[in-house]
């Protein structure tokens, strides 16, 4: 947004008009409030603005509030209208992944799709296993919340969860089942449910409209168009998440007991994986070293301190500092890390190609003109050894601080 | 760790290369064959439902298989009943498959349906079989981002592998040419899906735009004229190493990389 | 007289044993697979091949050439005369003097051999080879003294039995090394096997100034033929014979880029290992430089045992075979004209086609070639994207043109696209009637073939030949020496015969015909790097230099240029198989370049460009010849007469 302050007559009008629903949002920072002793306090510094001649002006015409660039529109919490479904004509059941106990963005897209399918008569029921930490079920579009708790459902228990979902099926008979087609549980659970219910699901669905759904087929070179089945496994961004309504999140209970089966698959727990051994293509956080790294011992220390997977440029591999399977780039591994930290890598075109899918790139380099800096979201120009040393120190301090807090 | 007389069957399909679409061995199925070969060696059985004359099947033979059994059926057939009846009597302890086919529907349902019909447990994302003893297998399951979970599962079971399983060995021309494709005549069951569904070339999905729910004209204007996010990143020049490290640290914390 | 009876016995005994040894050796070679040779014609051509073709190679080392002429010439003469004089007792004075002369000649030669052995360079094998000059001297001296009475210089019976015994011992030593040792595996084996190798060489075209560098095709229709070489006996018998001809001079070792880079390859050791395989045994007796990083004495083999054991040690490790860049420097230097590259590719064929053991990215590249017709796995439909704005004429539209521009897989590489665009600019400036195959073009198959995947090579080649057979053109021009070589020399066996030119040759033709209006190159000094597949493989050293000269560049030659040019490390799939060494080949080449002080290096190959540009800066700039020419193109059309698009003579292409 440009820095030029423009007059916005409409905004000014709203700022003057106390009856306008957005009136509050148009007011700038608080200028007066009730003090601790019951006396109204005013902050004269907030009122007014510096005029073109450098003099402070107080203008009560509304232009000041309405025209100021510092308007706090977004921060105003607008109470969204509540969407109430008293007697649902039908249910749309959604089983969100709930990674870390919260709705993921994929889950929210899915709830958006569910609301689209529910229209104004149906109710969206979210089936959640175990404890959750989510506080925004209402704005995400959950009309009914069905929590299934119990030891049986904890950890990795897909077979038991499917039994629970079958119980939901017999109680609510939802018109559609929606699950995220994800690797974090939804894809598997959905297919297990499909096999159990004998429904042929539509998978990797990215569009549902007018009773038709379109999903990716095969290796992704074709789309399959079919009438929307009962069970839909939807891809990321299958629909816009709910954004302009609030929902009741009314609790629903399962009436029947869930059948118990003898677990045929026993979860022995997560296996500690050394970040250094994670395949490069899958690693989430990569610390990559190149020609500019002079102290490789320190580089390895930094990777250990940060908990990052190590990568390298072609030159570093050629020079024998790193093994070949750590090479990042078009001729090495194409990586998909969320954060890619390039130390002393100038950024050959093949290397930049290989990190094309990375979210955030951090560069540490001596040369401010190199291509990696152009690609990076954050660059620090300077001696990599000194910066890494400072970073190791900072992270170690943070870790120790964290340990103290936990204690 | 592994008993000698493991009876393992790997199910394979015809794949398609992601850029050219040319028929090939399917990536994940080949990984399933690889895993099978590592577990059972020469005794691995490989099974395909389809056309026994398909040259792409030879790419599996090229991995060192002496033969590959093909349940003969036309391309519109439903492989499930054929595989089900075959596996029922095959006496396998472990059936390996890929996660989804590279051609056709590719819903990835086949292992789930087979497991349901056979009444066997199913392991998704098998990365490694650690040991098999007393009718139980201890396996590692692949989770996203290189994480692993250890599971204990009762034999016999079905497992599908994804890209976390070991990379398939190279398919060599000599064994591919020598290997035998054993065709089995079976009753054909048509797939009902294609009655109401049709395929179309994949439409590229546009990147989701930042939709701004504008309540007012001003906001709409703001949204429309807003500079695209991105462009050059932040560059810290002439700062002390500590200041630089602090900036990096902040970003790492924001991204949740420091755990 | 004792000597008169003893000498014939010694001579004929040694000769007899030599003949038996020869028979045994011959049967050993014949364990290999059959090969078609011209038995008699080869033998008849042998002296000329030896005295002319081989001499050209040896002559590069003047010292050794003169030494060898004296020693070998003296020996052959002396041996022949000794058999007449001492064997058959023809005691003629003239023959005596002739024999004395021959002995002196041989003695002088042997002295120089001995001199070089005083402080031998690392490339020479030691062991029995250190004995050879002594044996040669002993032979010459013994026969000299033994012949003095024949020539009448000394009286008969001079020196009494003492001298006679000494001479007998000397002659016995001499003839056992030089006659009997020749066929029983001594250093002199090279003379016997070498002569026959020249007679029945697998590439007889190389003699008489010819050139034969294309790999030979496997017959894939013959299901019984082995796919490549697994065991020594899977080589053709004349290949085995060729290995036996090795003199262990180490010229190959001295020029091998992989050896210099510390990769586990030494061409001389490889050939000697093949000899071990052919006869059976271990490499413990090898007395030269080992494969870098590998100890001697741990490998062994036999004719019927696999050469490579992927899970342990056999005769040769797979890494050795995959280190080769197929630059042909060893073959070019070899005074015995041994074909190292053929042998290496034969063994690679087995590893790829039978074992599926192409290392590192090899398997992926081959899969990509099968599925997408290019090694990078790019969507085949994007092959012409680089030229989206150039409005290139397509063969499918024009049907008949003068020049078919073979683009190559560089079409997918952003760096190489600059070269391609530059060359198109030149073609357009010269009003050349050209077209490209566009999406009908596929990888030439070079990489697949050199990685040992003959099946994929033949598939690609046949499909390319089929595409081209639909159209008429006079010649093919390519910016990629690898495609150029394969199209020119390796498609013939599969039915594709074309006139193929490298773009530097074609630009040279255009410049000579005054079709280009060129300015002068501005900027610093320039050196030129000869691509292996253009130079050594196809003998084109002049045209690129002529083109550079035409745009005002005086090439600062590197010490290793022309036929001695050092490889960039990019050939033979070496960057794909990526066998680690102590240093990188392109880095070494860049040192060569920097030694000239040039600011820019002109190249004519996308592989060389990629490899050299991969060297860490600061380093000289790298530019393709086409880019240099395009840079100095003057806008105004050439003043030459308006180029009439000459109607190409219809050339049937199959």
UniProtKB/TrEMBL annotation, chain A:
InterPro entries referenced in this protein's UniProt entry, alphabetically? DHS-like_NAD/FAD-binding_dom, ETF_a/b_N, ETF_a/FixB, ETF_asu_C, Rossmann-like_a/b/a_fold
Which Pfam families does this chain map to? ETF, ETF_alpha
Segments forming a coiled coil: none
Keyword check for Transport, yes or no.
yes
Give the record's keywords alphabetically: Electron transport, Transport
Q: Give the similarity note.
A: Belongs to the ETF alpha-subunit/FixB family.
Q: What is this protein called?
A: Electron transfer flavoprotein subunit alpha/FixB family protein
From TrEMBL, chain B:
The UniProt record lists the Electron transfer flavoprotein alpha/beta-subunit N-terminal domain at 14-198
Q: Which InterPro entries match?
A: ETF_a/b_N (IPR014730), ETF_b (IPR012255), Rossmann-like_a/b/a_fold (IPR014729)
Pfam families according to UniProt: ETF
Q: Does the keyword Electron transport apply?
A: yes
* Keyword terms of this UniProt record: Electron transport, Transport
What highest taxon heads this organism's lineage? Answer: Bacteria
Family designation: Belongs to the ETF beta-subunit/FixA family.
What name appears for this protein in its UniProt entry? Electron transfer flavoprotein subunit beta
What organism, scientifically named, is this protein from? Pseudomonas aestuarii
Taxon lineage = Bacteria, Pseudomonadati, Pseudomonadota, Gammaproteobacteria, Pseudomonadales
